[in-house]
């Protein structure tokens, strides 16, 4: 009961920022598109010539193995491991607002092994949960849409953000994905 009273007191004084439903949806949209960006970065780092045998190791009626070889990055092994770990990268993301227009965004603190050069174009949002909500939202999205993500990745869809974050999860409006304000 005491924790609830403290929480309500903090909210009333504006110390604990509470996001409106539209701001939460916007934040989830940013997290979702960031997930897709991180997935695509991970896949681009995989050697395209690397293949893996995903066929069964049983003999067919004629005594032959049923072998099926696929690119490693399309294998269930790779995709499952990558998607299990993808939300850990959200620990490097922070909420921010663009200095130019005040719009909400999330941004990675690190880029190419150093500090993100785009940091000078945003103001960081002081978050009482130390941006743990970003990882929470990421895990929620990945858990809920895991099979769809894997299917879409295997199908090599061109605009994954529009498909996953817009059509499937309905976290982003189509115009937000096609014309993001976040392009710094």
UniProtKB/TrEMBL annotation:
A single cellular component GO annotation: endoplasmic reticulum
UniProt entry keywords in alphabetical sequence: Disulfide bond, Signal
Positions of the Saposin B-type domain: 25-176
InterPro entries, per database record: CNPY, DUF3456, SaposinB_dom
Keyword Disulfide bond listed: yes
Signal peptide (from-to): 1-20
Matching PANTHER family: MIR-INTERACTING SAPOSIN-LIKE PROTEIN (PTHR13341), PROTEIN SEELE (PTHR13341:SF2)
Family from the record: Belongs to the canopy family.
This protein's name: Saposin B-type domain-containing protein
Species whose genome carries this gene: Parthenolecanium corni
Lineage: Eukaryota, Metazoa, Ecdysozoa, Arthropoda, Hexapoda
